[in-house]
Design goal:
The chain is an alpha/beta fold and 200 residues long. The chain has seven helices and seven strands, in the order ααβαβαβαβαβαββ. Strands 3-2-1-4-5-7-6 form a seven-stranded mixed β-sheet, with helices on both faces. The mean pLDDT is 95. It binds S-adenosyl-L-homocysteine and magnesium ion.
């Protein structure tokens, strides 16, 4: 892939205030991808395709990324960007709300990246667990939500998101079949690795 094209895609997203993955978060995920064999990735929250394009270069031969986005204009922009990055054979976009799309998805994914509506994280987790390969990994971005998740005081507007993010962190931490770490990179990244040979 052409590096300057990727830099341009990133620059345009930032200029348009699209909430793309932060550099330090991306670095952590890229390290994880370098150290694992990943053939199938599921992403919830495509935006304009930046993270999907970045992840696509770590896929094994014939690997694919399925990614879900509900805003039509973003889907269009993501398709354009994916073409520009010449990865249209590797990245497939589901246009629609993940709440409706997820129940229709079957198969197993080596990595699942949750990066969409914070109030839906527990719901996304229930599907991520269903769709996770035996030694797969679930990543969730923005789990610390600018520090609100760990603070006692939250404005009304943030309350539902905070409650659901806390619920998400509790579930992944308490699930005996997952090994979870919460990293303070970017806006908070939860990394949950499924323990081998155990059913969820
Ligand atoms: N992963 C992207 C950034 C995603 S930003 C990157 O790093 O490049 C989050 C995106 O999730 C937004 O574009 C938003 O429209 C989308 N989104 C939020 N809730 C969603 C839902 N329920 N279903 C599908 N997409 C959703
Ligand atoms: Mg994010």
């Amino acid at each position: 892939m052409n590096k300057t094209e990727l830099a341009k895609i990133k620059q345009e997203a930032l200029e348009e205030h699209i909430p793309i993955i932060m550099d330090d978060t991306l670095e952590v995920i890229e390290k994880l991808l370098q150290n694992r064999k990943v053939t199938k990735i599921l992403e919830i929250g495509t935006a304009v395709g930046y993270s999907a394009i970045c992840f696509s270069k770590f896929l094994e031969e014939n690997g694919v990324i399925d990614t879900i986005e509900r805003e039509e204009d973003r889907v269009e922009k993501a398709k354009e960007n994916i073409k520009r990055a010449e990865v249209e054979e590797k990245v497939h976009i589901y246009s629609g709300d993940a709440v409706e799309v997820l129940p229709t998805i079957e198969g197993k994914y080596d990595m699942i990246f949750i990066d969409a509506a914070k109030g839906k994280y527990p719901f996304f987790l229930s599907h991520a667990l269903r769709l996770l390969a035996d030694d797969g990994i679930i990543l969730a971005d923005n789990v610390l939500y600018k520090g609100y998740v760990m603070s006692d005081y939250n404005k009304h507007k943030q309350r539902t998101a905070v409650r659901n993010l806390r619920e998400y962190l509790k579930e992944v931490s308490e699930n005996p079949n997952l090994e979870t770490e919460i990293l303070e990179v970017g806006d908070g990244l939860a990394v949950s690795i499924r323990k081998k040979d155990e059913a969820i």
